[in-house]
Amino acid sequence: MIKIGIVGGTGYTGVELLRLLALHEDAEVVAITSRAESGRRLDDLYPNLRGYYDLAFTEPDVARLAACDVVFFATPHNVAMNLVPELLAAGARVIDLSADYRIRDAELWSRWYGEPHASPDVLPQAVYGLPELNREQIASASLVACPGCYPTSVQLGLIPLLARGLVDTQHLIASAASGASGAGRQAKVDNLLSEVADSFKAYGVSGHRHLPEIEQGLADVAGCPVQLTFVPHLLPMIRGIHATLFARLVDMSVDLQALYEEWYAEEPFVDVLPAGMFPQTRTVKGANRCQIGLQVPQGRDTVVVMSTIDNLVKGASGQAVQNMNIMLGLPEDRGLQQVGLLP
């Protein structure tokens, strides 16, 4: 049985990770940490987990965590980068769901996150945990940086176009919308029901922290720098991301529907919908799945790609479990066979 430790299990990604691992036949969570909730039973904070875990939150202890086979960080940014070096030195394998190791350039990270990176020397060890791109590297990694939710939906939507050199890399556009859980569990006026309900708004228009992560990943695929205009929006719902992506075609001779179907044919968690069918957030809710649809409106030179995920599953905790399965040589879909919830 794989011994799992979770640092910071009190937020939405933490409880989603616990939900998925509860039915993972090869995994046992043996340690879950929270300084604020130390001593409190897990099922007292999250009654949905009653009967699945007999655990209480503890203070982070490196020796106890290092004894685990895998340690997940379900923490805000700037937590993992202070603890991960010590865990790696002790021989632990780490999957970080925060943004601390996603951006390879420490100065670029600092510019977007407003503080110095605490362990820049560890950045070269981190493998970006998008399995559809980096499966082989993930398998041998000691540190995996799990992608953000917006970056997952946007990159999966654009990868085939950029890999084949079919679009203008300098004029990419992503208009993406997320449910309120993407903002985390902390108390903020902007997250109140009376603020979110019956409304739809853009935010981070001048620059969102996920932008450099997305551009880094897309540039790796394209083999050259890319420029993306990224505008996130807040939807009046709890879960889900819908990314609508626009790119100008430089080669219109390729059957794009066939390209996408072939590109993702062997990917267990990417579903390219039939021509003329477009994804909805409701059909991926609760599932570790990205659904993609595409169209070239009026047969002009702009392709529109629509990509949907559950921000807490394929956009966070489900993808983290997918990475764990790859790292440990397990079937990639182990513990991730949940069907999307309807209605």
TrEMBL record:
Keyword Glycosyltransferase attached: no
EC number(s) from the headed UniProt entry: 1.2.1.38
SMART domains associated with the record: Semialdhyde_dh
InterPro entries recorded: AGPR (IPR050085), AGPR_AS (IPR023013), AGPR_dimerisation_dom (IPR058924), AGPR_type-1 (IPR000706), NAD(P)-bd_dom_sf (IPR036291), Semialdehyde_DH_NAD-bd (IPR000534)
Chief place of localization: cytoplasm
HAMAP family tied to this protein: ArgC_type1
Official protein name in the record: N-acetyl-gamma-glutamyl-phosphate reductase
Organism: Seongchinamella unica
